[in-house]
Model the fold of this input.
Amino acid sequence: MSNIVMLTRMIFLFGLATLLSAASPVWTATQDETVVLLGDTFFEREYRQGHLETALTIATAGKNIRFRNLGWSGDTPRC
Done:
């Protein structure tokens, strides 16, 4: 992977983590909590790329958050 792509991803993750930690909290993480990513192709692709998990882990530093990805391609909110 090229250095420019890696740098772009790092800047994106840092910016996302900053926004998540600076915004008014919609969700307050507790110690040793498990977060389930439930949804469609977006979450299934997250399994391979890990951007959302990384940003949430950075935003909740020190809380030992675990992630479980239950994304499935073609799934919809209506099943």
